[in-house]
Amino acid sequence: MEPQKDKTPLGEAVLSQVAELLRRHRLVEGLVSRQEMPRHGLVEGLIHKLHLVELQKTLDTLHPADIAYVLEALPLDERLIVWDLVKAEHGGAVLLEVSDAVRETLIAHMEKDELVAATENLDTDEIADLAPDLPSAVMEDVFRSLSAEEREQLRSAMSYPEGTVGALMDFDMISIRDDITIEVVLRYLRRLDEMPDHTDQLFVVDRAGALKGLLPVNRLLVTGPDTVVTAVMEGEPTRFRPADQAQDVAQAFERYDLVSAAVVDTSDRLIGRVTVNTVMDYIREETDSDMLSAGGLREDEDLFASVWKSVRNRWAWLAINLVTAFVASRVIGLFENSISKLVALAALMPIIAGISGNSGNQTITMIVRALALGQITATNARKLFAKEIGVSVLNGLIWGGVVGLFAFFIYHSWQLGLVMTGAMVLALLLAAVMGVAIPLAMQKLGRDPALGASVMITAITDSGGFFIFLGLATVFLV
Amino acid sequence: MEPQKDKTPLGEAVLSQVAELLRRHRLVEGLVSRQEMPRHGLVEGLIHKLHLVELQKTLDTLHPADIAYVLEALPLDERLIVWDLVKAEHGGAVLLEVSDAVRETLIAHMEKDELVAATENLDTDEIADLAPDLPSAVMEDVFRSLSAEEREQLRSAMSYPEGTVGALMDFDMISIRDDITIEVVLRYLRRLDEMPDHTDQLFVVDRAGALKGLLPVNRLLVTGPDTVVTAVMEGEPTRFRPADQAQDVAQAFERYDLVSAAVVDTSDRLIGRVTVNTVMDYIREETDSDMLSAGGLREDEDLFASVWKSVRNRWAWLAINLVTAFVASRVIGLFENSISKLVALAALMPIIAGISGNSGNQTITMIVRALALGQITATNARKLFAKEIGVSVLNGLIWGGVVGLFAFFIYHSWQLGLVMTGAMVLALLLAAVMGVAIPLAMQKLGRDPALGASVMITAITDSGGFFIFLGLATVFLV
Q1: Which of A3, A200, A343 sits opposite B238 (nearest CB)?
Q2: Which of A79, A396, B91, B212 could bond B118 through an S-S bridge, CB–CB 3.0 to 4.6 Å?
Q3: Which of B114, B140, B163 is a domain's end point?
Q4: Any domain includes B323
Q5: Please, are residues A318 and B359 in contact by the beta-carbon 8 Å criterion?
Q6: Which of B257, B306, B326, B405 to mutate to test the interface with A (most CBs of A within 10 A)?
Q7: Is A207 helix (H, G, I), strand (E, B) or coil?
Q8: Partner B contacted by A445 (CB < 8 A)
Q9: Residue A451: phi, psi to the nearest 5?
Q10: What is the ipTM of this complex?
């Protein structure tokens, strides 16, 4: 598949071209339905078709990934018009490229035989990626259409859970025996029509199929034909097992600048490979889902999902935050007596809670990142605590001083100012300790520290901040 | 450079091995300095050296990227012990791999000639990456040691700002003339010792150096020797200019699964290439810095930076938040009279502000993401507004109902409950409108919508939430 001819990936230019064609198409449609004049029906039907033909032409020049981009950016009704024009030819490839949410809307509008046809040009590892979204009747038909070897591959690819190497693996590797000469290798390669994408190296195996080494394709070009493979291959290559964590592979690709890597079974037999494009997609999806969950979205949301779907997607996070807000509210409720005596407390308390929440989130961002990079060990965790406590005390004195002055200038009470400063120092200390402790504890409990740590710290600094400030005020001022 | 032999990238195992060797080394050092017995000095000096030798041996087996990982995870003093052991051999490669913050600490502890030596094994595009961190005296020496062509490359690479294709480009491409035969190409390649990393294709140029096409290396293997290059090359290849946005290249690599791509000047002459490993690093850095700035950190922080450095790094965000907190505090101050009459308001007001802040952040996360993917156009922006308003009204009724009931059960006033519900609907509406409007406006002003949008929405929902709730309460209850 050829990328489109221009120098940059398809931008808004083509998107608005498609939108314009759709607009014209719908304009005519609108005319037809408004006037309901059968006499003009034929002419308008023709114009209508003309626009669709033009649209089809535009779409035909696009790479499936670009078609996917167009589909994502269109509202549902227009998305389906475009989809009808492309699904026959590019169906499978486009379904692989769109997001989960949009894929759902596309598959919902396809017949069973269209879906089966869409999988026909796909590799077994690609079918496995689509499988969770396909109706079981479709999957049965697909299974029947495959060869025995492909069925085995599909079954194996589907058996590995998301987030493992097995789920990223494909079966498009070229393997060669270690005891043959370069000439034999070259002859073998010439018999293939084309080599699979991302074939930067051939995998060298012994008689039993066990991985012995790697032969970079580039080395084939500069080696004499009589050399034996073992003499020029790279021994002891990096290898992965299907059950390994996908993030370990991603790290290996990033650190060692790999283009492809071998996947072997427990007896070291080559069973597949992972390529850099899959790894790049995986990394993108991971950071994407981190960003979404940090923002309180359960999953990727179709930009034009129904209101009801969006409400459900955002439900959990709002519910959790409501509970923590109720708790904070009750903490304030404990001090209603003090507030009614000194109403300035009500105006000042959000400052303490807010700043300590921000500071705690800074600490958590640092720690979560260091944990993701594997930089935190038992030895250096204590140093980190010490450092964060130092930062919070220094910040507490600086910002506590500022808010103390603020309180003094507004309410002309130096006692109130001092209580603000003291509360700020304590609240920032709390934020620092919890900001280190929460992600470390979550990691220890085997949970993802990126998930929910921010909600927890905010809950603690809110309730804690209110409690510290109102408590100090009650003791010293009221 | 060979990745280390095991199946996964260097994990905590090696990190703790290094830490253990360092601990033993320092134990002996501690003994020496505490006892100050010159008689034993020699023996302890020997043990001391023994541990360092063992450490050196461990480090020698590591890939520079793995050494970088170890350095990042060590406190400053231990980091420098390890650095002393590796800098002679791997200096340049490791400096390229570590984060900016850690690089600074390493360069600060190197002599001028060590720094010059470290750049000796680097390509010009890699030297350009280090250049901003190197003292100018070092750069002068480096310049003098280069050939005229390399100087030109270095100057050109340093002239492109971060975030452009020029900054990602390297000069390691192999270009061939379009009118020669495959046999000539193969003969030319055989004369090279080795082909550069990530050479998946040769760049085909005409007599004037203008890019004409691409010849995939794999196709070389399956093509007859007498074929002319033009007959088998891929014409009209994807190409970039050095001033293009780096994120456009990243998108092209992701969409079209590229391994390398050509960079041309304004007369279409080939001047460099971009490879997938550089693109992957760029994507990682981008998402990293998005995460850091979303968490309120100005830049990447050395895990063991001094307290003072960390305070400075986190300064700006806290200062901004302090200002918005002061504003919110003054909004509450406007209603002190109402609060002193009905102190329940003080306990309930953070609920409205908090939930609308969360909801606004959900909307912003969606919109910023869609903007980054180029999915928002003038046409569909209106639909998005409509959708988000629908979501916020529905959420307002649901969650407003819940908080209304909460208020009723705690304070036994149905009027208070109704005001809570009404305030929630209005506050969520405000959050939805601003959640769409802020990132769109920032985009229009040419600013990065990911930067600061979250701070702005929180400022607005805080002050706005307090104002709406206390205002409604003042009108209807007090």
Answers
A1: A3
A2: B91
A3: B163
A4: yes
A5: yes
A6: B257
A7: coil
A8: no
A9: -95, 110
A10: 0.86
The amino acid that residue A296 corresponds to is G
* Domains in chain A, number: 3
Helix runs in B212-275, H state only: 217-222, 229-232, 246-256
Q: What is the pLDDT of residue B269?
A: 95
Q: What is the mean pLDDT of residues B142-161?
A: 90
Higher-scoring residue by pLDDT: B46, A320: A320
Q: Confirm or reject contact between B217 and chain A (CB < 8 A).
A: yes
- Residue of A366, A399, A402, A440 to mutate for B, most B C-beta atoms under 10 A: A366
- Do B57 and B206 lie in one domain? The reply is no
Contact by Cβ (8 Å): A375, B301: no
Residue A2: per-residue pLDDT: 38
* Model pLDDT, residue B10: 53
Secondary-structure percent of chain B, ordered helix, strand, coil, rounded to 5: 70, 10, 25
Could you tell me if A56 and A75 are in contact, meaning their C-beta atoms sit under 8 angstroms apart? no
Q: What's the mean pLDDT in B208-233?
A: 90
B211 vs A contacts (CB less than 8 Å): none
d(CA B201, CA B294) in angstroms, rounded, equals 39
Q: Which residues 83-102 in chain A show a CB within 8 A of chain B?
A: 97
Q: Do A358 and B296 touch (CB under 8 A)?
A: yes
Q: Searching chain B, which residue's CA lies closest to the CA of residue A98? A: B255
B294 touches chain A (CB under 8 A): yes
Per-residue pLDDT, averaged over B204-208, amounts to 93
Which of B117, B141, B163 is the last residue before a domain boundary?
Answer: B163
Q: Are residues A179 and A264 in the same domain?
A: yes
Per the structure, the complete domain to which residue B324 belongs is given by 307-476
Phi, psi of B236 (to 5 degrees): 45, 60
Q: Residue A289 belongs to a domain with what CATH number?
A: 3.10.580.10
Residue B12 is nearest to which of A304, A322, A377, comparing CB atoms? Answer: A377
Is position B292 within any domain? Answer: no
B469 and B371 co-located in one domain: yes
Contact A449, A442 (CB under 8 A): yes
> So what's the pLDDT on residue A383?
86
Same domain, yes or no, for B61 and B199?
A: no
Residues B142 and B184 in one domain: no
**Do both A193 and A260 map to the same domain?**
yes
What pLDDT score does A45 carry? Answer: 63
Residue at A4 is within a domain: no
Distance from CA of B199 to the nearest CA of A (A): 8
The residue ranges of chain A whose pLDDT is under 70 are 1-13, 26-48
Note the pLDDT of residue B190. 85
CATH number at residue B31: 1.25.60
**CB of A248 closer than 8 Å to CB of B9:** yes
**What is the percent of chain B with per-residue pLDDT over 90, rounded to a whole number?**
53
Check A375 against B72: CB less than 8 A apart.
yes
Choice between B470 and A304, residue whose per-residue pLDDT is larger: B470
pLDDT at B244 (0 to 100): 92
A317 compared with B45, residue with greater pLDDT: A317
Does one domain contain both A399 and A419? yes
